[in-house]
Amino acid sequence: GKNMDATIKSHTAALLRLNRSCFERAVVHDFIDFESQSHHNTLFDTHALAVQGRTDVEKELYGSVNTLIELIPHEVPIKVVGSNHIDHLTKWLAGKQPSAESYGSLYMWHKLNADYLKHVQNAIKYNEIRRGPLELFTRELYKTYGLQEYAPDFISRREPYYVAGIDISQHGDVAPGGGRGSIGKFAKCGHKLFCGHIHRFVIKAGYWTTATSGPTNPPYVRGYSGMQQGHGLIYSTGSRSTLPFINNFRLGALKF
User: Fold this and answer.
1) Where on the phi/psi map is residue 127: left (φ > 0), alpha (ψ -120 to 50), or beta?
2) Closest Cα to residue 238, out of 163, 181, 179?
3) What is the pTM of this model?
4) Alpha helices in 127-222 (DSSP H)
5) d(CA 54, CA 69)
6) What residues does 231 pair with on adjacent strands?
7) Would you give the end-to-end CA distance of the chain in angstroms?
């Protein structure tokens, strides 16, 4: 999203431009942070964000979608994986109307709720695909820019989505069966997976995770941060590799 590390964003853009024909699709985890109104924020977190001008939902959503449009070449299909950070937005929309102190947040609360309720009504009436509030907003913004044919697809957690035999549908926050996600639970589930969520590289049995493109010590982390920066790659053969960045420099790939 908009909080992507600037140096990693630059390296990633260069990587995609130089090897554009090599990428069949891009898979995105934590499309938004939703730090602006996350229910994880304490009163003091919210105050600090407000002082920095970072509590405006409108700015965060537009910034996140625009980052995606600028970063990934339009001809590369994008798959967005459902995550707890996207769920934070949905939970906020289902809650109480925000105060009028931030016009952008108040406006987006009403707009996204109205658009979503209308969409659900039409989807049920006409037996169409039901999409979430963030997906509706993203598709609308792509259409505004004349890029509707390149709008990303949002993947459901409820069924596998395979790329070269690797399931990319799981973020890692929700385990099989609906419980809290963990390394052990996913490693035992019997699928070859490439997940996100824990913001560091893990390889255990068929379970792999990618790292983060954002800061390694965000405000919501309590105590030491074990986060790492980097990407994950899936090859057409089904092999996987990690692409870690150390101190914002691309280190190289570890392939299996």
Assistant:
1) left
2) 163
3) 0.89
4) 133-144, 183-187
5) 21
6) 243
7) 29
Grouping H, G, I as helix, E, B as strand and the rest as coil, residue 41 is coil
255 pLDDT higher than 70: no
SS3 of 120, please? Answer: helix
Which pair of tokens denotes residue 131? 């999409």
Q: Token pair 């964000």 is at which residue?
A: 49
Residues 124, 130, 131, 133: is their CA dihedral positive or negative? positive
Question: Is the distance from CB of 117 to CB of 133 less than 8 angstroms?
Answer: no
Residue range 177-202, pLDDT digits in tens? 889 999 999 999 988 999 999 999 99
- Give which of 118, 92, 117 is closest to 106, Cα–Cα: 92
- Give the type of residue at 17: R
What's the pLDDT tens digit per position in 65-114? Answer: 999 999 998 889 999 999 999 999 999 999 999 877 688 899 999 999 99
Helix 57-71 and helix 6-18: axis angle, to 10°? 30
Secondary structure letter of residue 141 according to DSSP: H
Do residues 133 and 34 make contact, with C-beta atoms less than 8 angstroms apart? no
Tokens of 241: 């590799």
Q: Using alpha carbons only, what angle is made at residue 195 by residues 194 and 197, rounded to the nearest 5 degrees?
A: 160
Instruction: Count the alpha carbons within 13 Å of 180 in the hemisphere toward its beta carbon.
Output: 1
CA distance 133 to 115: 8
| DSSP secondary structure string for all residues of 71-119 | HS-TTS-EEEEP-HHHHHHHHHHHSPPPPTT-HHHHHHHHHHHHHHHHH
